[in-house]
Structures are given as structure tokens and as C-alpha cells.
Design goal:
GO terms for molecular function: oxidoreductase activity, acting on the CH-OH group of donors, NAD or NADP as acceptor. InterPro entries: KR_dom, NAD(P)-bd_dom_sf, SDR_fam. By secondary structure, the chain is an alpha/beta fold. It has one domain (15-258): NAD(P)-binding Rossmann-like Domain (Rossmann fold). Helix content is 39%, strand content 12%. It has eight helices and seven strands. It has a seven-stranded parallel β-sheet with strand order 3-2-1-4-5-6-7, sandwiched between helices. Helix 3 runs parallel beside helix 4. The structure holds NADP nicotinamide-adenine-dinucleotide phosphate. NADP nicotinamide-adenine-dinucleotide phosphate is lined by residues 20-26, 44-46, 49, 70-72, 97-100, 128, 155, 157-158, 200, 202-203, 205-208.
Length: 281
């Protein structure tokens, strides 16, 4: 289908900030928004990887600027938002996608029950996933109020709406993002700012490589996904574009769950057989 200039699914001329844009869902989202006509400010820690994303954005004929920073550091979220607005001449769209699981130094996620977990891991996950989200939203408000097509999307998770044993800090941070999106949606509605949360299920990225590369675990996880497979980052990116675009102009305060059907209770009626859990402890 050929896009037309007044296609509500396009973002021609929009100025968009995407955090966590160095890889995974964030990179796919940046490229998808660029393809829809937006100019991009790209944020994450890894500047070399951000430059690769910028090249992909420029391949789509759009502008890309880098606004790097470590969101675990207080003050970074505000600096990133301001730098993005300055570089692009304002902000119409913010896709706050950066996020972490608790992980070891080599990046392998630490998946242990809360009672066996360290407070320092809880603090780090909450600092990046929640405290930085609040700081980023607080600062984004002043820029989004100046836009006539303002949309803020928080990349939450299925973990924010479903029980996630061994990922309690992550699940709590993602549920809080949904609550924040709802509150801001109502609070900012009369200022013309739409706010939504997007809740992906199991998506094939660096964050989940520990799981999809481990056959018994991947097979067990996918047995719980009615569509029976991992999501690809592009599939999440298209939903982010929808939420950011005029196509979603009456949609605010929602948590859009994109999980291949995991969160839909089937009561066992679909007859999908589940292999035994690979967790032995
Ligand atoms: N993959 C899934 O199954 C899944 C499911 C539901 C929700 N999500 C959510 O989707 C979002 C993207 O996840 P992904 O799967 O694409 O993960 P990913 O491949 O691990 O990417 C995470 C992104 O966040 C950035 N980031 C991490 N820590 C940061 C920090 N301290 N400061 C600034 N940026 C930081 C990373 O960039 P640098 O390392 O360069 O800083 C990277 O760009 C996350 O919020 C995640 O919780 C993912």
C-alpha cells in the first residue's frame, strides 16, 4: 500500500526522541519512525551503536542526532530530553524505551526469586526503569506542551501486567510505568499530550538472548505463547509508531499489550500442551 501525505499512520516532519535506540526494540522503533517521516534524536550509552542506528535513520532520508547518556545517573534523563529538543527544534514524540533486567557484569540476567535477590539489583532496576522514566517525563512535559501533536509512549512490558516470578523488580518497575502513563494521560490530556504504555511479550533482542538461545527454556516459554513464537523488534516498533501517530489520536492512558496472546487466559481450552518447567530449584 502506498502511503499518502495525509496518511494518519505517518509522522512526516515530527521530531521524535527514542531512548534505548542503540539496539533491539529501540533501534527498530527509530528506523520505523524515520520511515514514517520523523526526524530522530537517539539516546543510549553506546555511542558507536547509536551511530549505526543513526546511519539507518539517514538511509530513510531523515535527520538523526545523538543524545547519549547513562540513565542510571541522576540528571541524565533531563539532559537527554533537553539536548534532543534543542537539536531537533522541539519535540512532538517521545518513545521512552530504554530498560534493563537485573544482570551480572557480563550482561547475563540475574533471574532469582525476590527472597534470594540483592537490594542493589532492585535499586539499579528501579533507578533505570522507573526513576529515570519519571525524570524523563517530568522534563519532556515542557517540550511536549509546545507541540500540536504530542505523544509520549513508555515501553513497559507484559511483565507489568502479568506475574513474573524471578523478575520481581523488573515487573514492579514495568507496572509502575503503566500507572505513570495512566496518570499522566489524564493529567496532561487538556494540554493535548497523549500518553500510553506499550507492553511487549517475549521479543527476540539482546535482553532475551539468554532465553531464546537456550533450547529447553525457549521451548518452554513459547509453549505459553498462543502464537507460538518470539516477537521480532519490528513488530513492536510498528505498534510504537501507531501509538505515536495521528492514527491513535483518540487513544490515551492505555496499556497496549502485544504478547502473542500470553495474557489471554485460555483456561486450557486451546489444548496447547506445556512441557515441564526447566527451572529445577
Ligand atoms: N525483549 C523483550 O522481550 C521485552 C519484552 C517486554 C519489554 N521490553 C522492554 O523493551 C525495552 C527495550 O528492550 P530490548 O529488548 O530492546 O532490550 P536491549 O536489546 O537490551 O536494549 C536495551 C536498550 O536500553 C538501553 N539502556 C540500558 N541501560 C541503559 C542505561 N543505564 N542508560 C541508557 N540506556 C540504557 C540500551 O543501550 P546501551 O546499552 O547502549 O545503553 C539499549 O539500547 C526495554 O524497556 C525492555 O524492558 C523488552
Amino acid at each position: 500500500m502506498t502511503a499518502t501525505p495525509d496518511d494518519p499512520f505517518r509522522l512526516d516532519g515530527a521530531r521524535a526522541l527514542v531512548t534505548g535506540a542503540s539496539r533491539g526494540i529501540g533501534r527498530a522503533t527509530a528506523v520505523t519512525l524515520a520511515r514514517a517521516g520523523a526526524d530522530l534524536a537517539l539516546s543510549a550509552r553506546n555511542q558507536a551503536a547509536l551511530k549505526e542506528t543513526a546511519a539507518l535513520v539517514e538511509d530513510e532520508g531523515r535527520t538523526a542526532v545523538l543524545v547519549p547518556g547513562d540513565l542510571a545517573e541522576p540528571g541524565t534523563a533531563e539532559a537527554v530530553v533537553d539536548a534532543a529538543a534543542t537539536a531537533l527544534g522541539g519535540l512532538d514524540v517521545v518513545i521512552h524505551n530504554a530498560g534493563v533486567l537485573p544482570a551480572q557484569d557480563d550482561g547475563t540476567p540475574t533471574l532469582v526469586p525476590l527472597q534470594d535477590s540483592a537490594q542493589v539489583d532492585w535499586d539499579h532496576v528501579l533507578a533505570v526503569n522507573l526513576n529515570a522514566t519519571a525524570a524523563l517525563c517530568r522534563r519532556a512535559h515542557r517540550h511536549l506542551t509546545a507541540s500540536s501533536r504530542a505523544s509520549l509512549v513508555l515501553m513497559s512490558s507484559l511483565a507489568g501486567v502479568a506475574g513474573t516470578p524471578r523478575m520481581e523488580a523488573y515487573g514492579a518497575s514495568k507496572a509502575a510505568q503503566i500507572a505513570l502513563a495512566r496518570s499522566l494521560a489524564v493529567g496532561w490530556a487538556r494540554e493535548g499530550i497523549r500518553v500510553n504504555a506499550l507492553c511487549p511479550g517475549w521479543t527476540r533482542t539482546d535482553m532475551t538472548s539468554f532465553a531464546y538461545s537456550l533450547e529447553p527454556l525457549s521451548e518452554w516459554l513459547m509453549a505459553h505463547v498462543p502464537l507460538g513464537r518470539w516477537a521480532e523488534p519490528d513488530e513492536i516498533a510498528r505498534a510504537a509508531l501507531f501509538l505515536a501517530s495521528p492514527a491513535a489520536s483518540y487513544l490515551t492512558g492505555q496499556a497496549l499489550v502485544l504478547d502473542g496472546g500470553v495474557s489471554v487466559p485460555d483456561g486450557g481450552l486451546a489444548g496447547i500442551s506445556k512441557p515441564p518447567s526447566p527451572f529445577t530449584d
